[in-house]
Amino acid sequence: MGHQFRVSAKSYFPYFSFERASEDSGNTEIFIQDSLNTRMIHTMAPLLNFTYDIREPLDRQWGVPGEGDNFTGIVGELQHQQADFSLDLTVTPQRAAVVQYCRVYIDESVIIMSSKPRPLPEYLSLIRPFTGELWLILLVSIFVWGATLWLLQKVWSWASGGRSFTLSSALFYSWGIILEDPPADPPNNITAQILVGWWLVFCLVMTSAYRSSLISHLVVQGKSPLINSVNDLVRREGWRWGTPRMTGALLLYLNSSPDRAIQKMYQGMQADSLVKGMEMVLEGGYSFIFSKYYSRTMVATSYTDKLGYTPIHISATEYPLFAGNAWAFRKGAPFLRRLDLAIQRLLEAGLITFWMDGVIFTRVRDTRRQQREEEAGKNQDNGNNVIYQEDDGQVVLGLHHLQVTFYLLMLGYGLGLLALLLEYLFYTLY
User: Fold this and answer.
1) Rounded CA gap, 2 and 63, in Å?
2) Which of 297, 288, 246 is nearest to 15 (CA)?
3) Averaged pLDDT of the chain
4) pLDDT tens column, 20-54
5) Closest CA to 53 of 6, 21, 2
6) Which residue from 88, 135, 203, 319 could staple onto 178, CB 3.0 to 4.6 Å apart?
7) 52, 98, 48, 41: which is closest to 71 by C-alpha?
8) Which spans are transmembrane here (predicted)?
9) Would strands 312-314 and 50-55 be described as parallel, antiparallel, or unpaired?
10) How far is CA 345 from CA 38, 329, 337, in A?
């Protein structure tokens, strides 16, 4: 019937977007831009015969519980009848107690943005074929086998008067076999020979596995693992993460989640601006947690080159914030049912998903066009448009592949020289 509604909203592309007429805290006048909710309300208004006045809340917040169960931001305006409904508000149990929601029309998920896997240092190529746990077990096995051989030879020598080993000889014996250079005089008793035989089989399997894996690591450089979930994030040693100032549904989600990994993530979370956060992501060792749709748009416009390559990796796992997003209404609003039915029809027609993809595509297209215009006449790419290419040709091993072998050779020379000096001092003084 031509009624004018008071609508409260915050700018949060691609859900709803606007520019403030003034940065004064008391001025709520805005200039609406293209977004999902803009298309929704523009479509519904003439069909249901209403007009609207969209304003930003005075405190510019979504709404979290305050003193005396009074909410801030958009939720507070609806709670105290200062607005009729809001555009795009995440459904949470706390908010649902003071406002009414229409049906959820889209989910609001957060994702983790990190730098794509980077090449591991070449000097680690000799140790990468085995995990640290396997290297430790192998080292322990060498000492345990050598000590066992020494004890068996001691017992055999005591019982039959046969040849015995010193402990150092037994340890070098086990080390020589695994390096495929066993001593020429194996033990002559059956007990030790059985022990040596099984050790030879063990060493054959270990050296074959190591050799084949080493060749692969020398030819194809290893890369750091992906971060696809919160578990991957919190388990990475020395890794940091952050998000913009935690408010609204994200804060409630992190506070109330029973997941231990999310609790650990929340405890280590640091507040960083969007620009600073993405700079640290590109530097490495840092992940940025943000909303899925905005992140997709940002990566496509600012961190993707003209060939479609981006150094940013978006996690495969998404974390929905509660039930999703919907329009929120002041309690008892008689028009809730009509607007709810209209949103249901938009969903059934597939327009919500279609519009969301269209809004993102339009923003990416316009932003990239503006970037091309600004870069017209330049013959070199800037920081966000670097062309990354990889050589798919034949790999020829070079010095950078085998640098660790020369480091080991220098280390061996150094240790040999040090041992010579110590021996000379020992025999000179004593």
Assistant:
1) 29
2) 297
3) 83
4) 877 765 566 678 889 999 999 999 999 999 999 99
5) 6
6) 203
7) 98
8) 134-152, 190-210, 406-427
9) unpaired
10) 17, 19, 12
The answer to which of 185-194, 225-234, 279-288, 390-399 has the lowest mean pLDDT is: 390-399
Neighbours of 170 (CB within 10 A): 24
- Write down the CATH number for the domain with range 3-107+323-362: 3.40.190.10
At the topology level, CATH places domain 113-118+223-320 in: D-Maltodextrin-Binding Protein; domain 2 (3.40.190)
Q: Which tokens go with 397? A: 């091993």
Which pLDDT band holds residue 385 (cuts at 50, 70, 90)? Answer: very low
Q: Which two tokens stand for residue 170?
A: 């037994």
223: phi then psi, degrees, rounded to nearest 5: -130, 155
Q: Residue 356: what residue type?
A: M
| 15 backbone dihedrals φ, ψ, rounded to 5° | -70, -50
Joined together, the tokens standing for residue 330 give 């002041």
The label of the residue with tokens 């000179």 reads: 428
**Exposed / middle / buried, residue 19 (Cβ in 10 Å: 0-12, 13-18, 19+):** exposed
pTM of the model: 0.58
The identity of residue 400, as a single letter, is H
What confidence tens digit (pLDDT) does each residue in 322-352 have?
Answer: 778 899 999 999 999 999 999 999 999 999 9
C-alpha 335, offset from chain centre: 43
Work out the burial of residue 384: count CB atoms within 10 Å of its CB; fewer than 13 is exposed, 13-18 middle, 19 or more buried: middle
**Which residues, in sequence order, are bridge partners of residue 100?**
329
User: What would the pLDDT profile of 84-116 be if each residue is shown by its tens digit?
Assistant: 999 988 888 889 999 999 999 988 788 899 988
Structure tokens at 274: 């969007």
